[in-house]
């Protein structure tokens, strides 16, 4: 894969002449041909990756109920416009302005959630230790207990008797998918289409912007 020069300034560091584009066409089983587009800046390290299917897709949601360990290996394509939701744990990750797409599996998606939960848990534990002299902070202790329960739930999914979880992908651009026979697809509701964030603006370049 060769890098192509993009004649635009970096949206983060604003430096010109360092922004490159890499486009790679590949075939994902059950998802079809897609183009992986990565825009990156060699000066500050900013990077944005997304997946664009060869065939037009409609806005949609995918849900997989993870009720047995084998489903942890189900493949997931998550685009930069996709919101990931775990309703049983009341967890949700929305696409921000620097969101990037990725191809992973259910276990990898859960790992990303775990990393966020662990980060928040450490911050709360630090706050609790700093404020011990002021007395017992019952609210913070309840939050810590809840986060530990969430971690235990996610980490126990590789056991046959684990409590099931649902992984839900909500994508207004329709570029995301869970590749498993038990995964369910549906249209997004009008309310979801109004409220869901769509992530970063796609990188669109005219012919004269390409070096």
Question: What would you say this structure looks like, in words?
Answer:
With 211 residues, this protein is an alpha+beta fold. It has a single domain, classed as Jelly Rolls (Sandwich). Helix content is 23%, strand content 31%. Strand 2 and strand 3 form a beta hairpin. Helix 1 runs antiparallel to helix 2. 23% of the residues are buried. The C terminus is likely disordered.
Can I get a quick summary?
This protein has 211 residues and is of the alpha+beta class. The chain contains three helices and twelve strands.
What characteristics describe this protein?
single chain, 211 residues, alpha+beta, Jelly Rolls, 5-stranded antiparallel sheet, 4-stranded antiparallel sheet, 3 helices, 12 strands, globular, disordered C terminus
* Second rung of CATH, namely the architecture: Sandwich
Number of helices: 3
Stated plainly, the CATH topology is called: Jelly Rolls
Spatial sequence of strands, sheet with the most strands = 8-7-10-5-12
In whole angstroms, the N-to-C terminal distance is 17 Å
Q: Estimate the strand proportion.
A: 25-35%
Taken together, the total number of domains comes to 1
The CATH class label is: Mainly Beta
The low-confidence parts are: 203-211
Shape: globular
């Amino acid at each position: 894969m060769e890098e192509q020069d993009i004649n635009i300034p970096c949206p983060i560091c604003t430096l010109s002449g360092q922004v490159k584009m890499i486009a790679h066409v590949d075939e994902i089983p059950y998802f079809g041909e897609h183009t992986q587009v990565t825009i990156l800046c060699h000066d500050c390290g900013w990077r944005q990756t997304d997946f664009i299917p060869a065939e037009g897709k409609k806005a949609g949601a995918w849900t997989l109920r993870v009720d047995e360990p084998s489903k942890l290996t189900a493949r997931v394509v998550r685009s930069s416009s996709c919101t990931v939701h775990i309703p049983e744990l009341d967890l949700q990750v929305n696409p921000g302005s620097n969101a990037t797409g990725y191809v992973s599996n259910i276990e990898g998606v859960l790992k990303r959630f775990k990393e966020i939960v662990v980060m928040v848990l450490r911050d709360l534990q630090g706050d609790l230790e700093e404020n011990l002299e002021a007395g017992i902070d019952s609210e913070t202790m309840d939050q810590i207990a809840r986060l530990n329960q969430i971690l235990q739930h996610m980490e126990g999914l590789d056991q046959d008797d684990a409590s099931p979880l649902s992984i839900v992908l909500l994508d207004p651009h329709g570029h995301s998918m869970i590749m498993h026979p038990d995964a369910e697809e549906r249209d997004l509701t009008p309310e979801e289409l109004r409220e869901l964030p769509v992530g970063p603006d796609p990188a669109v370049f005219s012919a004269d912007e390409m070096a």
